[in-house]
Amino acid sequence: MSDFVTTEFVDSNGDGYTDAELIDTTGDGYADEARYDVDGDGVTDVVDYDHNGDGVIDETRVDLDGDGVSDYTETSGPFSA
Compositional bias (Polar residues) at which positions (predicted)? Predict the structure, then answer.
């Protein structure tokens, strides 16, 4: 396991801007956090978390109005971090 964070930036529509940011916080080669800008305004709209590293999203946070604050959170569990 690595002791550094790796981030992959994805431009899914080819407009030159990052649409998704995949973050590996544990160094195992899998994204533990994924941030999405779904409307292209430069503000993260959706964040998915895999808290326990099993490849399944455990928590999703959604910013509905673009103010940078989560308006909706959905969790699945139980899980252990």
Answer: 72-81
- Tokens at residue 72, please? 């909706």
The string of pLDDT tens digits covering residues 41-59 is 888 999 999 988 888 889 9
Domain membership flag for residue 81? no
pTM of the model: 0.77
Angstrom distance (rounded) from CA 48 to CA 73: 10
In single-letter form, the type of residue at position 50 comes to D
Residue 41 in any domain: the answer is yes
Q: Running DSSP on this structure, what letter comes out for residue 34?
A: E
Q: Does any domain span residue 57?
A: yes
Nearest to 36 by CA among 12, 53, 56: 12
Task: Provide the 8-state DSSP code for 27.
Answer: S
Identify the three-state secondary structure at position 46: strand
